[in-house]
Write a structure and sequence with these properties.
single chain, FAD/NAD(P)-binding domain, Enolase-like, domain 1, 3 domains, 7-stranded mixed sheet, 7-stranded antiparallel sheet, 24% strand, globular, binds NADPH dihydro-nicotinamide-adenine-dinucleotide phosphate
Length: 462
């Protein structure tokens, strides 16, 4: 009989924490989980899920416009922000309930409290003023938006957290950053009718994505009417007497808007967690340092998900949770596989991607075959919408393996999921070539690009 209160104590009720607690409890382990905000974590409560609902909402104006080309006359339309937020909140509450139910059914003890480490086996539940002990402690507290404290006036800005609960939709917004969140929200706000400006310090949005995707999306966003200010950053933010915000930039621009949103990356949520009480090592960003089995430097303490700053994605946290359970409770050491993770940016149009960009592949392999198609999607022929889909396969010429697949266009995220299987399976371009097309679809291009568009030899396009 263990001398601890629990076999496993999980701190953090997000995707990774809930999965770990549920699986361990279902095995008959004595498990507790603590969450200080809402069960479901960033993804469910104020991340991926409500974001995607907002993406759907923001697409309707284009649907209404496109309808005309197909013979429909759509009457006057009106958007009600409060109604959207309320509907989104109902869905999030339903999902939160499912997360709790899963934990409950598995037999885990559920605490609504902040939990902080007291020592290597003890956790303090601050809301209950109570200590509990556990043989193993799993930290899955996720991340939090980078507040950019060095920016004078940063406290006047919102982050993605607040964007989900704005009292009113602003008439205009400036979004800072060029990553997933900035790009997705710039598209959401623009689609909902907000005058939107994106300010990014780099040369082109979405660093590390394939250059064709970056350029194609940037062009599409600008064509829709999103202003993109590049190679610039905020120097100060001020508020005017009539409640508007003014951003002065390093390049000397003065930008005025109803709201300013910072989307400058996310920091590990380790502040005040008591890690030093247990001697848990963190890196310069405050992320918990773990080995390939998600073990911290303290044998009884483990960490998964965004708090470890490996790959900040929900499915990765869930995968790390399952590997943790296999390793610690099933006697089957399993380390998370972070290779070839398919991902999507829910911009408009979407980007779906897996594997290496052309630029990264060119650094790694001597010779590449690049297959590229750019075309007008079928729906746009009648809607008259000026838009392009881009598809790209990057093939290592030496063994014909497809090492990168990139799509800009409708449902690119859905396609990236399936392409992820083919790359994971090690499919070659010949496998793609002998696959029958599904006609008429956009994705048939992926199996009908028979000749390379160009080659890249020793980093040079030929
Ligand atoms: P990202 O890391 O994607 O992007 C951060 C952006 O902020 C970059 O463009 C970066 O510029 C810029 N930046 C950082 N610091 C500064 C600074 N001091 N001044 C100016 N610009 C700065 O982070 P996000 O916040 O967009 O998203 C966090 C994570 O959440 C992502 O890594 C992603 O994994 C995950 N996520 C995934 C989604 C999905 O799967 N669809 C959706 C939303 C989030 P630079 O490029 O120059 O470094």
């Amino acid at each position: 009989m263990s001398s601890y209160d629990y076999d496993l104590f999980v701190i953090g009720g997000g995707s990774g924490g809930v999965r770990s607690a549920r699986l361990a409890a279902a095995m008959g382990k004595k498990v507790a989980i603590a969450e200080e905000y809402r069960y479901g974590g960033t993804c469910v409560i104020r991340g991926c899920v409500p974001k995607k609902l907002f993406v759907y909402a923001s697409q309707y104006p284009e649907h209404f416009e496109d309808a005309e080309g197909f013979g429909w006359s759509v009457g006057e339309s009106h958007f009600d922000w409060k109604k959207l937020v309320a509907a989104k909140d109902r869905e999030i509450t339903r999902l939160e309930g499912l997360y709790r139910k899963g934990l409950d059914n598995a037999g885990a003890d559920i605490f609504e409290s902040r939990a902080e480490l007291v020592d290597a086996h003890t956790v303090r539940l601050t809301a209950l003023d109570k200590n509990v002990t556990a043989e193993r402690i799993l930290i899955a507290v996720g991340g939090t938006p980078n507040p950019h404290e060095a920016l004078p006036g940063h406290e006047l800005c919102i982050s993605s957290n607040e964007a989900f609960h704005l009292e009113e939709l602003p008439k205009s917004i400036i979004v800072a950053g060029g990553g997933y969140i900035a790009v997705e929200f710039a598209n959401i706000f623009h689609g909902l009718g907000v005058e939107t400006t994106l300010v990014y310090r780099g040369n082109e949005i979405l660093r590390n994505f394939d250059n064709d995707m970056r350029a194609g999306l940037q062009k599409a966003m600008e064509a829709k009417g999103i202003r993109i200010v590049l190679r610039d950053v905020f120097e100060t933010i001020n508020e005017t007497d009539d409640g508007l915000l003014v951003a002065h930039t390093r390049a000397g621009e003065k930008l005025v808007a109803g709201q300013i949103m910072l989307a400058l990356g996310r920091d590990p949520n380790t502040k005040g967690l008591g890690l030093e009480n247990a001697g848990v090592e963190v890196d310069h960003k405050g992320a918990i340092v773990v080995d390939e089995y998600s073990r911290s430097n303290i044998p009884s303490i483990f960490a998964i998900g965004d708090v470890t700053d490996r790959v900040q994605l929900t499915p990765v946290a869930i995968h790390e949770a399952m590997c943790f359970i296999e390793t610690e409770f099933k006697g089957n050491p399993t380390s998370p596989d972070h290779d070839l993770i398919p991902t999507a940016v829910f911009s408009q149009p979407e980007i779906g991607t897996v594997g290496l960009s052309e630029e990264m592949a060119a650094e790694k392999y001597d010779e590449l075959e690049v297959y590229r198609a750019e075309f007008r999607p079928m729906k746009a022929t009648l809607s008259g919408r000026d838009e392009k889909t881009i598809m790209k396969l990057i093939v290592n010429a030496a063994d014909r393996k497809v090492v990168g697949a990139h799509i800009l266009g409708h449902e690119a995220g859905e396609m990236a999921q399936l392409l992820g299987i083919t790359l994971k399976a090690g499919c070659t371009k010949d496998d793609f070539d002998r696959t029958m097309a599904v006609h008429p679809t956009a994705s048939e291009e992926l199996v009908t690009m028979y000749s390379p568009s160009y080659r890249v030899k020793n980093g040079e396009r030929v």
